[in-house]
Design goal:
The chain is α+β, with helices and mostly antiparallel strands. The chain is built from 5 helices and 6 strands, in the order H-H-E-E-H-E-H-H-E-E-E. The termini are far apart.
Length: about 210
Amino acid sequence: MRARLLWLVPIGLAALAAWALWLRPGATPERPPEAAPAGIPRPAPPDPEPQPPPAAEPVAPPADPELPEALAPEAPPPEAADDHGEAAPEPRSDVAWYAESPMSRVAHRVVRGWGARPDAEARGVVGAFVVVDPDLPEAELERLLRDIGRYHHAVDTLSVRVYDSEEAATYDRHVDGGVFGEAHLVASLNRNTALGIEALRLRGRVLEP
């Protein structure tokens, strides 16, 4: 009987040691998560609360690069074009010049002129409005035109209009679109060397240069 009890001692000690280890702090095994019952889906964890995006730091716009000189806007021409495509005269800028140095022996008077003076801003671009007597013979009028052409022989762009009325040569053409002026235009001379133009007109007729 004693021998049988001695045989149970080691077994008891082993069981006691296992029980002590099971009760040691931290030795308790984690309990596995309970499985959801069949047919019932496990609720998904809540989505994290959205965070507002960080505020963008203000960025100063880049300074506009300086335009190259080739792209800079061109300065307007010194004379604008009138309704007939001719340079609009500067008010009486060359009147005194022509009075001191007439273009012809034929009686005439320049009431508007531009570009003829040596200090003109646009050299090579000359224009004039000339007034003659309404009774001037056509032969004298033609002589006046040719004298004007010789006077400005070195000019590349020339526009001269001859009127038989000072009022028609000096009034504001925008009042009637130039109708009154055209009625008193008796001759004209237009030259454009670059385009090969040399046109003389006398009372509606085209003259040979």
